[in-house]
Amino acid sequence: MSVVEHVSPTGVVGPTEPDTTLRRVNAPQRFLHGFGPTAREIWAYRELLVNLARKELKIKYKDSVLGFVWSLLLPLVQLGVYWLVMGRFLGAGRSVPAYGVFIFCGLAVWSMFAEILSTSTTSIVYNSGLIKKVYFPRELFPLAATGAALVNFAFQFVILAAATTIAGIGTGKWPDPTNILYPVLAMVVMILFGTALGLMLAAANVYLRDTQHLITIVLMLWFWMTPIIYYISRVGSVLHGWLYDVYLLNPMVTVVLSFQRFFWPQGTGTQFEFTGNLYLRLIVLIAVSSVLLWFAQRVFSRAQGNFAQEL
Amino acid sequence: MGSDTVIRVDDVSKRFVIRKDNSLKERLVNARRSKEHREEFWALRNVSLDIQSGHTLGLIGHNGSGKSTLLKLIGGILTPTSGFVERRGRLAALLELGAGFHPDLTGRENVYLNASILGLTRKQTDLYFDSIVDFAGIEPFIDTQVKFYSSGMYIRLAFAVAVHVDPEILLVDEVLAVGDEPFQRKCLDRIKQFQHDGRTIVLVTHSLEQVRQMCDRVVLLESGIVVVDGEPSDAVRHFREQNSEVDSIEQASQRHDIVIEKVRITDSTGVPRTVFDSHHPLTIAYDIVAEATVDDWAAGVAITDGSGMLLYGTNTVLQRRDLEPIRGTRTIRFDFDDLPLSEGQYFVTVAVHPAHGMDYHRIDRAASFQIRSGSTDPGVITLTPKIDISDG
Lengths: 311, 392
Description:
The complex is a heterodimer.
Chain A: E1 23-25, H1 35-44, H2 46-60, H3 69-89, H4 92-95, H5 99-126, H6 128-131, H7 140-171, H8 181-207, H9 210-224, H10 232-238, H11 242-249, H12 251-263, H13 278-304, H14 307-310
Helix pairs in contact in A: 2-7, 3-5, 5-7, 5-8, 5-9, 5-12, 8-12, 8-13, 12-13
Chain B: E1 5-19, H1 24-29, E2 38-52, E3 56-60, H2 67-75, E4 82-87, E5 91-94, H3 107-117, H4 122-136, H5 151-163, E6 169-173, H6 181-196, E7 200-204, H7 208-214, E8 217-222, E9 225-230, H8 232-242, E10 249-251, E11 258-266, E12 275-277, E13 282-294, E14 298-305, E15 310-315, E16 326-336, E17 344-353, E18 361-372
Parallel strand pairs in B: 3-7, 3-8, 5-6, 6-7, 12-18
Antiparallel strand pairs in B: 1-2, 1-4, 8-9, 10-18, 11-13, 13-16, 14-15, 14-17, 17-18
Helix pairs in contact in B: 3-4, 3-5, 4-5
C-alpha cells in the first residue's frame, strides 16, 4: 500500500489535479503544519470560491428593483446623517475641513470591515445544508464572504473617489500621489486581519450561536473606538500616555488613518492629522495579521472536522 | 492488498456526542451538570473495508445502522473518531440532490454553482451544459428561479448535474428513488454506464432488489458494525432473515362466528418450513372454524412482497369450487407445485369471505416465507427461457 504520510490535509484533491495515490481523507495534522497544503487546496478550488462569492452577492439583492444601489444607499445615508448631526448640529464639521470626505474615508473602510466580520461569522451556519452534504474546504465560506464584502467596497470606493474629487475642486487640495501606498497597505491589513478574525468567528459560531449576536455589539463598540467621525488629535488630548498607546493598538485606527492620509488631503498639515509613523504601524500590522491569519486557519481546521455533526 | 484499491476504510469508528445546550448561557448554567446534557453514541465501530476500483458496493442496514455515516466519512464530510479513510481519484457524492441549489437563483446559475461545488471548472460546465439541461428535460425553465420548480424538476436538474461531473468514485445515498419512472430508468441507465466505464460506486439504498441488481459486493451494517461483507445475495438474505418477524394485521371481522386459525406454510409432505428453493412445491394451509353453520363462504390466499405489492391471489370462487356449508373446523390447503418466484421474502395473506361482499375474517401477512434462488436474473419471478439464435 502506497500511503504517503504527509499528504494534503484533507486528502481531497482539487478539482483539476490528477491523482494516482491513495490519500488520507481528513488526515490529522500537527498544529504547526498544514497551512500550506490547505492554501494550495483553496487555490485549486478558486473557481468555486468566486462562484460562492458571486452567489452571496446575487442572492442579497435578488428580486429587488434597485439591487446594488442599496449597497450604496446605506453608506450615503449614514454619511448624510453623520455630516448633518455631528458636523452641523454638534459643530464638529465647522473646524474640520471637508468634513464629509473625512467621515466617508472612515465609513467606507469600516462598513467593509464590519461586513467581513458579520457575514463570515454566519457563513458556516447559513451554509449548513451544503456542509453536511458536500465536501470542499470549509474555509471557502468565510473567504467567499470576504470576497463579497470586497466587491461591495468597490462600489463605496467609487463614491469615496468622487467625494475626494469634488472636495479637491472645492478646496484646491488634491491627494498626494506619493501617499498612495497608505491606503494600499491599509487594504492589505484589513483583508488579512478581517479574514483571520472571520475564520475564527465562523468556527466559533458553529459551536456557540451566541457569537453572531455578540459580534453585533462588539462591532458597535469597535466603531466608536475608531476615529471615524471624530478626529485622532482629539483622542490624544483626552487619553494620555499609555492609554493613548492602547487606543492606537486597534488595527482599524491605523487603517482608517491611512485612508484619511490619502483621500482627505485637506487634513494634511493641520492639527487634525495623525503625527505618528503610519508606515511603521502598517508594516507591523501586516506582519501581525499574517501570523494571526495563519493561526486562525489552524484553529479553523481543528474545528472544522466536527462542523457537519454540530450543525 | 491490490494496488487498485480506491477506497480504504481502516478500523474506523465514529462517535457522536449530542449536546442539548447550545448557547453560552445554557452551557454556563449547566456547566456542572454537563454530563447530563451530553449523550454519546457510536454510529460506527471498527469498520474496515477495502474497495477495489471498478466495483459497486452496496451498503444496507436498518435506519440508524450507520450506512449514511460511513458514506459521509468516505466523502470527507465527517471525520472519524478513530481510524482513517483513504481514497484516490475524483469523487462525487450524491448525498442529497440539490444540496447546493439556492432557491433564489435560476436553473442556469444553479447548474454552474452546483457543478463547481462538485468540482467542474466553468469551461467543463459550458461543455456539458446542453447535455445537462437535456438530461433533466427542463429546457423551457432553465432561466427560471428554482424556487418555482416542481420537486420533480428540481431533483432532475440536480441529478443531471451530478452525473455529468464525471467522477472516478461515486457515492450515492438513496437518491435513486426520486422522480417519475422514466427518469428513474434514465438514472439507473446512467449508473450502469458508470459501472461499464469501470468507475467505483458506493451505494446506500433500502431497495434490496436494486442492491441485488447493481452491486457486486454488499456490506450489511447493524448498529455500526459490519455484519456481512460479501456476495449481494448472502448479505441480502441475512438482512431479510433479520426482518423476518411478521407483523400480521387482522382485519375487523364482519362476523365473529367464522375465523381463520393456524396459518402454516409447509412443503409438499406437510412439514412446516419457511425457506424454499425457487420452483419447489409449497403449501399454504389454514383452519377455518365456524361456530354456526355458514352457507355462503369462500376461502382465499394471496402472496405479497415486502412492499405489499400483490404478486398472486386466488380464492375458491375464482377457482370455481363449490363449497358445502361449513360448521366446525375445516382445513383448507393451497398446494403450489411450482412457485416461480425469485429470491426474496414473501408474505401470505389469508381470508374467509362470502362469495360476494366483505371479508368475514382476514389476516394480512399471516405468515412469511423466503425463496432462495441460484439465479441472479433481475425481476420478481424467475423464468428459464431457452435461447435460440438462428440466421434471419
